[in-house]
Amino acid sequence: MSISSCKNRKFYTAFIFLISLWASGSHLRAQTETAIPKEYQIKAVFLFNFAQFVSWPKKSFASPEEPFCIGILGDDPFGAFLDETVQGEKVESHPLVIERYRTIEDIKKCQILFISKSEKNQTDKIFAYLKDRNVLTVGDTDGFLEDGGIITFSTKENKIHLKINPKAAKRVNLSISSKVLRLAEIVEPGKE
Amino acid sequence: MTFRISGLDIMDNTLTKPSPLPVNKSFIRSALLALFFIAQLMLVTGFSLAQTQDTTPSPRGLKKLSLEELMNLDVTSVAKQPEPYAEAPAAIQVVSSDEIHRSGASSIPEALRLANNLDVAQASSGTWDISARGFNAGLSNKLLVLMDGRTIYTPLYAGMIWNVQDYLMADIDRIEVVSGPGGTLWGANAVNGVINITSKSAQDTQGLYFEGGGGSWLEDFTGARYGGVLDSNIYYRVYGKYFDRGSEVYANGNSANDAWRMGQGGFRIDDEADTKNKITLQGDLYGSSLNIPAGSSQTYNGGNIVGRWSHPISPDSDMSLELYYDWTYWFDPVAASAFGPAGNLIDNLDTYNADFQHHFHIDGSNSIIWGLGYRFTHDVLQNTPVIAFLPATLDHSLYSGFAQDEISLASDWFFTIGSKLEHDDYTGYEVEPSVRLKWDAAPKEMFWAAVSRAVREPSRIDRDVVAPNNATPILAGSSAFVSETLIAYELGYRGEIVPKISTSISTFFNNYDSLRSLTPGSTVVIANNLAGQTWGGELTADYQMQDGWLIHVGYDLLNENIWVKPGASDISNGLEDTSDPANQVFLRSSVDLPGNFDLSPAFRWVDTRSVVSGTTVGMVPSYLELDIRVGWHLDKNVEISVVGQNLLQDHHLEYGFPSATAEQISRSVYGKAVLQL
Predict the structure, then answer these.
(1) B44: nearest CA in chain A?
(2) In the 8-state DSSP scheme, what is residue B251?
(3) Is the pLDDT of residue B114 over 80?
(4) Where do the structural domains in chain A lie, given as residue ranges?
(5) N or C: which end of chain A has fewer CB within 10 A?
(6) Contact B565, B574 (CB under 8 A)
(7) Nearest to B549 by CA among B586, B585, B594, B505
(8) Which residues does A88 contact at the CB level (< 8 Å), separation at least 6?
(9) Which of 14-53 (A) contact B at CB < 8 A?
């Protein structure tokens, strides 16, 4: 329209150009920092959610005050993040606690057991040991469900997906909310 | 007639000739500039170097997400953290995408009813009056509203044109609503509240989404989005939507002939390839036409392009730069009246904005955030004989800078001090400081207190309006008009008083000065001769009854006292700026039912509202209304829902001076199908 408005536009174009140059400069000065795996932070929060969306038989707790335990078998990929996630939280009346087990023999009474990648070579032994216990087994190794696990995390296109074997859950008297099942891929390994 | 500054309703009343749509020449030029702007941003991206991991999300933030949202998070990018807000010492309420979805809200104003610290009133089919902590009066002007960082209130009257603020509702990530001043961080106009609408990243909207449906008021609508990958870790989405909304009715049930329609399309690209340098580029373009009862129609067009660079330096420090260009075009046929012949008011506004922010820590106990901003608006009006803004063309600059330090005094005590300094062409320098104190009484309990100053800078209507446009106007703005100011005192609590019940209580005492007044005379002149005090509070409680059943209760209390300053006068004795309900009550429930059904009823009760026109007071009666949504997930990909809105009465008045020509809001129902692949 008017000459003055053309002038203004030129001025602001130049201004934006200068800003971008300056930004790219500061960009080059970027420093690198140490890596923090976010994958396991999200998985930690999933574990916390499983405690809310899966129901355990009443008899799996001796008293209403008995803690609800999430156990980790093998190398711990979650660090303090998992502890912070459950800090002060309860499942109904049971305070949530985290326990870490080095070996199968260390496993005490827990409701959820995350089986770390480090235990890949002894899954048969683990599932034999857990047989008939009301434990929700969670893992993220290939073939975890085929080995006998109940829930496994898989990563597709940078996002975490869930695969669940509801039959394996039923076998140990756990019922998984349809809210979780709806979002998961249902896997029922051929041989029972 | 009694002249009302509110609502610019002088313009919409009587017959006018329909006129052809004017061609907007400056659009092409604007588009070219926008392209150049994109090129600049690409240049910045080109420098990407370091490839490193990113910052830590907090357990608290992640736990707030639903399972769906967790599954949508990218395991290699920074999680969106509601946490800073959940822990912010302010009266903030966050509406999540899940809440929007379950409510059946089909527009942003409807979604804002979910934030209980707002007064949301629908005045006609296409107009809403929305405010926080009072002053909801036609041209309510004390809110700062942002969409993905774009400031979207109009500088014409510092108010909102709500009907054209839109996204695909499914693409909205969250809406944060702060009641109370946010001037220190946000700046001009953040006097009574800040509404911050954030869309999902392109990464979180991958795949095909289609929605369609129709009903009684929302006659028909359709929307589609496709999200894909441009290159490894560079995501995009494109979307388009269209709707037709019908007319509302008068008290006698006759149609008000104010049906409207709108189409919008846009895109968003998120470059997450370099976790140290995230680039977002997004833009929207829309067109809308709104019938006015007299028979012709208003046109609203607009578009924007936004570039954002964010640079996480470490888990607790980051830098960001946002540049945007925004264009709005408003065509409004102004009727002939006793004050002059008909004419077409056209407002063509270009906004250029740059904001830089830097956040860092010093020795673990000081969390510092500072920033610089610049906004330039180029506003061109085509005036009419009945109403005009002089000068017709106005270039306006706003410079701002702010700094804030959060100091941890002890492990559970935090003291925040900061200020914004602004310079605008109208009033020169403005200072907006605040101090806040926060006490984390327990892991899930927090008390906070704040004292802040905020200003509402003059808008064009305060300074430039002349009506009618001749030597002896009835109403005139004044170059002596200065900023309205507020000193606010706030006290709040947030936490779980009882397990499973999260509660938030915010209280305030606001002290206003230099509020807008209208000095009577042969020419009514806009001045700053009012002052006032308001006090009240907002209370919410969320109760997780059991898995899949949430109950929400909200209550707002507001008391207002506005007076004319000694020795001055105002045509409505200070009553015109406030037409607010003293009490509002909200009750919502959301429950998952067997068979993949879910049900969400929402009640709202709004107290009487006194609306003043000149010296006449009219009462909008209190009302109780109910919205219900029933959703049914056929499977993972298909969802069908039915939404009933305002179900309790055939039609009811929500806003406006009660009269035979005041519009009422009808009961309405619509159905919707969603396909997601």
Answers:
(1) A24
(2) T
(3) yes
(4) 1-32, 39-186
(5) C
(6) no
(7) B594
(8) B443, B444
(9) 15-17, 19-20, 23-24, 26-28, 30-39, 41-42, 44-46, 48-49, 52-53
Rounded to an integer, what distance in angstroms lies between the CA atom of residue B265 and that of residue B285? 6
Among A34, A45, A177, the residue with its CB nearest the CB of B70 is A45
Chain A interface mutation, best of B38, B44, B64, highest count of A Cβ atoms under 10 Å? B44
Which chain B residue has the Cα nearest residue A155?
A: B75
In 3-state terms, what secondary structure has residue A183?
Answer: coil
User: Taking the mean position of all CA atoms in its chain, how far away is CA B271?
Assistant: 27
How many whole angstroms separate alpha carbon B248 and alpha carbon B653? 11
Place of tokens 């020169």: B428
Q: H or E segment at A12? A: helix A3-28
What single string gives the DSSP state of each residue in A20-71?
Answer: HHHHHHHHHTPPP-----SHHHHHHHHHHHHHHHEE--GGG-SSTTSPEEEE
Q: Which residues of B339-352 are buried (b: 16+ CB within 10 A; e: fewer)?
A: bbebbbbbbbbbbb
| Overall size of chain B counted in residues | 677
The answer for A 128-187 residues in CB contact with B (under 8 A) is: 155, 157-162, 177-180, 182-183
Look up the ipTM and state it.
0.74
DSSP secondary structure letter of residue B223: E
Whether A35 and B378 lie within 8 Å, measured CB to CB: no
Q: Nearest residue of A to residue B444 by CA position? A: A88
Residue B634: φ, ψ to 5°: -65, -45
Order of strands, edge to edge, in the sheet holding A136-139?
A: A90-91, A94-101, A68-73, A112-115, A136-139, A151-156, A159-164, A185-186
Nearest CA in chain A to B307: A20
| Average pLDDT for chain B | 86
Per-residue pLDDT at B77 exceeds 60 = no
The number of C-alpha atoms within 13 Å of B289 and in the hemisphere containing its C-beta is: 7
Which of B104 and B69 is assigned the larger pLDDT?
B104
Per-residue pLDDT of B612-647, as tens digits, reads: 776 778 899 999 999 999 999 998 789 999 999 999
The reply to whether residue A159 touches residue B71, judged by beta carbons under 8 angstroms, is yes
Q: What is the pLDDT of residues B4-49, one digit of tens each?
A: 343 333 333 332 333 333 334 444 445 444 544 444 444 433 333 2
Tokens of B587: 């009750």
Q: Are A69 and A90 in contact (CB under 8 A)?
A: no
C-beta of residue B577 within 8 angstroms of C-beta of residue B562: yes
Could you count the other beta carbons within 10 Å of the beta carbon of residue B562?
22
CB B82 within 8 A of CB B94: yes
What pLDDT is recorded for position B544? Answer: 80
Does this model's pTM top 0.80? My answer is: no
Q: Is B59's CB within 8 Å of A31's CB?
A: no
Task: Find, in chain A, the residue whose alpha carbon is nearest to that of B373.
Answer: A19
To the nearest whole Å, the CA of A192 is away from the closest chain B CA by 27
Residues β-bridged to residue B366: B362, B407
Q: Which residue in the set A13, A30, A85 is minimally distant from B59, CB to CB?
A: A85
* Candidate CATH numbers 1.10.10, 3.40.1350, 3.40.50, 2.10.80; the one for domain A39-186: 3.40.50
Domains of chain B and CATH, by start: 6-676 (2.40.170.20)
